[in-house]
Structures are given as structure tokens and as C-alpha cells.
Amino acid sequence: MLETTIRNKLAQKDILLMTHIVIGYPNLDTSFEVVRTMVEAGVDLMELQIPFSEPMADGSVILKANQDALATGITVDQCFDFAQQVARDYQIPFLFMTYYNILFKYGVEAFAERMAECGLCGAIVPDLPPEEADEYLAAMNRHGLAPIFIFAPNTGETRMRQIAAHGSGFIYCMARKGVTGLQTDFSQQLGGHLAHCRAATELPLALGFGVKDHDDVQFIKGKADIAVVGSEAIRVLDSQGVAAVGDLIRSLR
Amino acid sequence: MNRTLRDIPLPDIKGYFGEYGGSFIPDVLQKVMDEITEAYLEIKQDKSFQQELQSLYRNYVGRPSALFHARNLSNKIGGAQIYLKREDLNHTGAHKINHCLGEALLAKRMGKEILIAETGAGQHGVALATAAALVGLKCHIYMGVVDIAKERPNVTRMKILGARVVPVTRGTQTLKDAVDAAFEAYLEDPVRQIYAIGSVVGPHPFPMMVRDFQQIIGIEAREQFQEMTGRLPDNLVACVGGGSNAIGLFSAFLDDRSVSMYGVEPSGRGLYAGQHAATLTLGTPGILHGFRSYMLQDDAGEPLPVYSVASGLDYPGVGPQHSLLKDLERVNYVTAGDKETIDAFFELSRVEGIIPALESCHAVSYAMGLAAKLASDQTILVNLSGRGDKDIDFVMENYGKDYCPE
């Protein structure tokens, strides 16, 4: 169970790190290298994004990575193979992140079944609200996978409780409105939001959207359980290469 | 066919038209969609709102728009009688003003400050910029740079009206990408802004709300046609991109079994990948831009590139109610290509003195073909959804030498 794995890790560390890659960006070989580098630098869990051309919740950095990966001709099958390979090679939990049409078109049950076969632990599907998720939730439960849901900054407490009732593993809290990869103000207000999130669920909390450096991660300690770094890792990969991604990860905690 | 329209809510409380529609969006937007739904359902019942809107339709838009019997065209073809519902005569030159005024008034009542939207041909953008100016709201319009280059006059109009036109350089730089960019901007500030979606697409309540605002077309046309001819039209024809003008016309006739309906999609340069935008003709169900409907997609679920000579039809999705009407076989979804569309553009201009928008030309073209197959006592009501002033430079540059020899 993903939640148990997270709790066990939290017994040893005061904050966990979750990183993100777009599978196939800039190519599959580099994606393997980035995962290896991130794992060796000590990340605790990883999101593997299956590229989609309309990534509604993502900002320009991840959008471009999605579109560039698609331009290489990468397929959903290759993404499964990739996930299977890294899940076999490394002993951290891997999650899929993608948009609902990818699952819908593949067949939700078949998708979940193959996720389980590949050794994945869960999925984040930001455009699938729990109200529309009956089939998805049933399939994920059947295969022992964690459906990760999202708390937005404007999600009220009643709604948070409804969402949390459907989720497992952890809850992904957005640090601000908008899309991934933009400036976030790590302030008292955000602390207050996380306190509300904490009050609404027993599940571990991850915080993402704009987390980029040591100071941000220090701020999150004690308020959430997992710091999520996405766009920043792609920025560093683009500008300084794979090795620098390792340096970034090591600098965070 | 087991189901009929009478058994199916249009839509149900979650925004479903049969299995199409719904709301597939991040939670940060779901909250504001719920607020919009609530506010809309309230004003729908509010007499003062409806009176204000009807008064604007009459005194500002110039409604009711005329119904015109295109005798010259009908006689020339020698078949069925063609009638044109003249939405091109509306203020701003297209049907889009009908829902833009509704959306702008709603935004004002909700205390929003900025209307944002995507636009393809620029018709929705101009209409929204107009409505924003009228009700006193800011307006940001997202438009692909390909469309900006093609639709200069509308870009100029939006700027004159005080709107900010935001060029979209991502992806194919057309309507689909403008939708993505507008969604992204909306996610940043869903409190001060409201996304006034430009067609009967997107998450609930937009397919319902925009349809409701556009129903005025069909309600007027039904009455006008009966007054003019003493009966109902035998056939309705309208172009379908997202499908707002078509659903506006069709809605008033759905229960009239004697009325056949045709939604005309663009087959562009031909029905092969990337060369058309015939979503209902060749698409499959999927989820894009927050709703479930037919869409043009590959095996993996990626939306396919689309093309039409008419920017306003250049979209890989379609309104969910159309998807239901297709499955129920209540509406026939058919196609017209670039060539026939341009023929229709010049034919209507020269035979009736009406320059139609390239979008609407798809409907005119199909109606001309249909008329030729029918007897002269049969009737076809075409929704002439917009005027063609915006298209004249593009058409002359690309097709002028074929149609206008020196």
C-alpha cells in the first residue's frame, strides 16, 4: 500500500521528495538517465507523466515537454514499458500522471490492470473529478492502486472531505491556483491552507506547484509530508543537463 | 433505436446529454463552474434579467433577424425553395452576439471584472469584446497567430473595442490552442475573470447555457417561417464547428418529426487525417477541454490536427448535444469541402447580393446540393450564421483569380 510505504519513510525523514518527469522528454534514453539520477540523489517517489497534447493543469515548461515528447512519436505502450523498467530497477514508488482521455481511450480497466502489472503504485489524473470517476475508482481499487486526488486553494472543507473519501495514498495539495511551474508565494496564507488540508484528511499531504529550491522545501517541512518538484527539474535538465538535476535534488533537503 | 429525445434530459443535473457532456476539469475550476451554474439557473428564472436581455436583442442587436426567401438562388437551382435566417444581419455580423450578451450580463451580475475567451475566426472575440464594452467589463481574447494573420479585420475590431488580443503561439496556433491558452489564463485567476466559452462546448454549464442563449434563432425562425409560408420548413441546414448556431436553430424543431435536420461539418481538403474538421462524421467519443463528446483523436487519445478554410469550424471537438443528436439519428451530420464552400461564397454573393461568412458557406453549399435533389414545393431553411466581410481579403488572395477574371 502506497500510504504505508509513505508512512514508513516518514518515520525516518521529516520531509519526502516527489519528483516528476515527462516520459520521453527529450527522449527515452534521457528519461531513463533522469530517473536513475533522481533516485540516486535520494527522491522518495516519482510521478511519470504520459504525454498528452492538452495538459490542462500544466504550465508552459511541462506543456512544452509534453509536446516535444509527443513529437518524438512516443506511444502509451512505450510509457508502460518505461514504467515497468524503472519500477523493476528502483525500489521507490512510481505513479503515473496523465489526463483522462488517455485512460478512457485505452480502456480504464485495462489501463489499471497494466499499471499493476508494471509495478506502478498509483495515478494522478488532474482532469478527473471524483464525481466522474466511478469506473476509474473501481478499477484502481481492484488492482490495489492508489487514486491520488487534488486539493485546490479554493477547495472548501466540505469538498475536501468528499474528495479525500475517494482518494488513497496521499492527497496532492496545490500551493496556488493556476498551472504548474510558476512563482508561488510561500507565505503564512499557504501555511493556513495546508492546515485546512490537514484538518480535512488523515492521508499524507503532498505540496506542489512552484516548489523549486531548498527554502521552499524547508517551508513545507512540518506543514506537509511530501514536497513535489516538477517544472524546476525540467528547467535544470534543459539548461544544465542530467547531472545538474541530481545536484538540484540533493540541494533541496 | 430504443431511446428517444423525450426520455433524455437536455441536459441532466450533471450536465450530461445522454452520455455526452459532464465536467472533466481540475477542482480549482470545478468550484467556479458550480458558481456559474448556480448563477445562471438563478438568472434564467429572473424576469428582470430576461427583460434586459430581450431588450438588448431588440434594440442593440437588431432582432428579430430577418428571414429571407432566396428566390434567385432557388430558381437558379430549380429545386427546393431556400430560405435564409439572416443572423449575418445582427450587430457584429454573426450569431455569436446572442450568447455573448447573455454571458456578459451574467458576468456583470456575478461581480466579475474580466471576460476572457478564445476565438477562431474572430467572430466570438468581436462579439464578446462588443458585449464587454457595452456592459463595462474588461475583455481578453486568446487567438492563434495563424488565425490572427488570416482574420485581420476582426483583430482590428477587437482592438478598437478595447479588448486585449493575446496571440497564442503554442501547438498548431489555431482554435484548439487558443482554448488551451484561455483555460490556462482562467486557472490563474478564476475569481476576477470569467471564461465566456464561444460555443456549446466545454464543461457544464456552458453547452446548456450557450444553447439557451442561442435558442432565440430557432424560436424566431419557426414563427417567421410559419408566418411566411403557413407551414414548417421541411429541412434545416446549419454549419457545425462547436455547433452553437446549429443547436440554436435546431432546438426549436427537435419535436417536429416532419423537419429533417442537417449539420454540415467541414471536410476541408478531403476526409483524410489533418485535412478536415469533420468531428461527428469521423470522430469517436473522448474527453477534451473539460467535456465528453465525439472528437477527432488518434488511437492513443491525442487530438488530431484539424483544418478548414473557415477558422471558426477548425476544432477537433463538438458540442455534446450534437453527439447525442447524432447517436439518436435526429440530425444528419454531413460535410462540405473547401471547394464547394468557396463556390457557395461567390454564388450567394452574386445571385442574392449577400456575402456570407466562410463558416456559413458550408451550410449554404450543402443546402444548394440538397435543393437540387428536391421538388420545388419542398423547403430548406438555412442558418446564415455570419456575414463574410471578415473573409473577403483571404478569399480574394487565395481564390480571386478563379472567380474574378479581369
3D structure, described in words:
The complex is a heterodimer of chains A (253) and B (406). With 253 residues, chain A is an alpha/beta fold. Chain A has a single domain (2-251), classed as Aldolase class I (TIM Barrel, Alpha-Beta Barrel), CATH 3.20.20.70. Chain A is 49% helix and 15% strand. An eight-stranded parallel beta barrel of chain A has the order 1-2-3-4-5-6-7-8, surrounded by eight helices. The longest helix of chain A is centred in the first third of the chain and has 14 residues, at 76-89. In chain B, the strands form four sheets. In chain B, strands 3-4-14-9-10-13 form a six-stranded mixed β-sheet, sandwiched between helices. A four-stranded parallel β-sheet of chain B has the order 7-6-5-8, sandwiched between helices. The model of chain B has no long low-confidence stretch (mean pLDDT 95). In chain B, α4 runs parallel beside α5 and α13 crosses α14 (358-373). By secondary structure, chain B is of the alpha/beta class. The A-B interface holds A 52-54, 56-57, 59, 63, 67, 70, 75-76, 99-102, 104-106, 126-129, 131-132, 149-156, 159, 163, 174, 177-179, 182 and B 14, 22-28, 30-32, 170-171, 176, 180, 183-184, 187-191, 286-290, 297, 299-303.
